[in-house]
Amino acid sequence: MKPLIILLITLVLLSGSRVCRSESEVEEELTAREHFNKGIVYFNKHEYDHSILQFTKAIQMNPQFCDAFKQRGNAFLKIGDYERAIWDYDRAIELNPKYPNLYLNRGSAYLRLDNTEKAIADYTKALELDSAFTMVHEGRANIYRDLHEYDKAIADYTKIIELEPTNAKAFYKRGYMYLEKKEYAKAINSFNSALSLNPKYYNARFDRALAFSGKGDLDRAISEYDKLIKEYPDNSNTYLAYNNRGYEYFIKGDNESAIKDYYASLVLNPYNVDAYDNIGISYYLTGRYEFAKESFEMAVELGSVCYECYYYLGEMYEKEGEAEKAAMYKEKALKYKRAEDGNEQD
Known about the structure:
Layout: H1 3-19, H2 23-28, H3 32-44, H4 48-61, H5 66-78, H6 82-95, H7 100-112, H8 116-129, H9 134-146, H10 150-163, H11 168-180, H12 184-197, H13 202-214, H14 218-231, H15 238-251, H16 255-268, H17 273-285, H18 289-301, H19 307-319, H20 323-341
């Protein structure tokens, strides 16, 4: 055989062996950046275990690869392994302490572990690095809201509004904080701003009705609920609109309209314990004790914590000569009254 032919055959065989390399051999030849890129592809496909493997290989090849630690932390966050996510964010922060997203992500992991103190500290650090980071302002505001630190939440929502004047959600959330603080005029102003940006913002309209009620403007509250019920008959909260409108009628002394709305609420949600409480109270105060008793007992069955419900039941059983039942219900009434006042005792 001629030497040239032998050489060609040898090259073809060598080339074939190259093509038939195992996947693991190919993996070994990838650079840290290539492993990282493969990890991103897996991450975007929600294949987090595979992405973690690729990010780990990138880190093994380049222990200073900040983004690989960050992305592996993100993958751990996605699968609920918050401790490992925090460990990775710690390493990334050591490598790049001026990167605000790292503090945001680590704060989110702490939050999922219910460590609000460390979450707030991380969000605050992120804002020191980037005061215009609206996502962090919102995250911190939401924590303050859940901690009932409403003034701090309002400050963050106000900052978002300054940065994004067309952010209807920020106006709404700030309004909700004012509502919680019983600063009804300010709440209404914020809800109005949200609605000027998004007139179909259901929650802003619903909570504005609550603010009207708190301010004592019952007719405007009723008018708001009228419109919500008419415009959104299939909304999941329409049963609440009926219930709340019924309460406004009750406050105005129109018990019959109130009872009618409470029953309309129950048609949409037969498990609405508040409606049973309210029906019972309306019946009781108008002397229709049998109907009141029936409604209160249904409320109790559904787990009512309305102290009036238990007290009035106790009163009715006492009048019927059932002292033991009366005492039991009045004891529960006292317990729930203390809880409502924030003075619950063991």
